[in-house]
Design goal:
Helix content is 0%, strand content 53%. The chain is mainly β. Strands 5, 6, 8, 9 and 10 form a five-stranded antiparallel beta sheet that branches. The relative contact order is 0.28. The model has no long low-confidence stretch (mean pLDDT 90).
């Protein structure tokens, strides 16, 4: 089973400061799999107006039950006007393989 295809990661409608910087960003992970996810890591990339990455950050979602979602409030940043994000790692004791590094998962544009 491709567990990554059963997960959805999304950002809320965050605020962008007048001279750049992201405020009130919340990331939500929806677990549509049948497994308890012990830890899911997601990489956030903050982009300037030209689309160049100005900052990268990893956030973790812990103990997301099957059919449920979890939301993480992300610290404000003084850089960037847009955010790209993707899931990079999935850990679950209930899966046959203890952890899965997610390969070739493209960034979601927001």
């Amino acid at each position: 089973e491709n567990i990554a295809s059963k997960l959805q990661l999304r950002a809320n409608e965050y605020n962008v400061a007048a001279f750049g910087g992201i405020r009130n960003l919340k990331m939500t992970l929806q677990n549509d799999s049948r497994y308890l996810l012990d830890k899911v890591s997601a990489e956030l990339r903050y982009l300037n107006p030209e689309g160049t990455v100005v900052k990268t950050e990893v956030i973790d979602f812990n103990f997301v039950r099957p059919g449920e979602e979890a939301t993480v409030a992300v610290k404000k940043t003084s850089r960037g006007v847009k955010v790209d994000y993707k899931i990079t790692r999935i850990e679950s004791k209930e899966l046959a393989a203890n952890s899965v590094a997610v390969e070739n998962n493209t960034y979601s544009k927001n």
